[in-house]
Prior knowledge:
Layout: E1 18-22, H1 44-48, E2 54-57, H2 67-76, E3 82-86, H3 89-94, H4 101-111, E4 118-125, H5 133-140, E5 149-153, H6 163-169, E6 173-174, E7 177-179, E8 192-199, H7 210-225, E9 229-234, H8 242-254
Parallel strand pairs: 1-9, 2-3, 3-4, 4-5, 5-6, 7-8, 8-9
Amino acid sequence: MRRLSIPAMLTTQQPGGLRIGTSGWGHPQWRGHLYPPGLRSGAWLAHYARHFDTVEVNTSFYRLPTAAMLERWAASVPQGFLFALKAPREITHDRRLTACEAPLAAFLDRLALLGPTLGPILFQLPPRFPADHDLLERFLALLPPDHRYAIEFRDPSWWPDPTPTILASRNIAFCPFDLAGSRPPRHVTADFTYVRLHGHERPYCDRYPEPILADWSAWLRTQLDSGRDAYAFLDNTKEGDAALHDARLLHSVTLPGLGH
């Protein structure tokens, strides 16, 4: 296998509908890797958006972003940049998709403040939440059709049919992921794909082996060639610059020549 080369930065809005970024931008360990040592943290998002055209927001899982926060984020990024937001744990973990109309409506209403910078919305279901397809269908019926949605199923009981069929009927993406040995099938159920790479050997740590990134790259390329948009987020952010390195590298080998 040829040696994979890393571009210095990613351009905004890639041809082919490919967007690769990281999970979050507020990582202090990126000082000296992405952020100049003297750059204040309030300027990190704008600096991040010079190098990547998307980011996955995980803080929304823990608390609803304020209106001022969302407006500030939208004003900090260039045209074409997209935020992917993780839905609140109140919906997915506390209420487990049941009786969640009010928090879901509050979340979606608040996200409208992002305007054209709003990208896909991710629902991450917890482990030990076994498949309940009737419940899934009732929940999906609550989702307004004017957004893109992806669902990450941590419990393997969700991975076989009829889950992919149910998602495909509503153009909702089944989220393939890699979390230290937990790797669901790469079902394609929507007009876009949404991948999360959390860490190959250890959760949220370490650079990915190049052959693993090359394999993901080939799969993403297949989706692009089929006319789908493709999103991928590196969540190995716990230590050093692993996520930055891997996001750049994955982009470089998926769309060679477009990373400079």
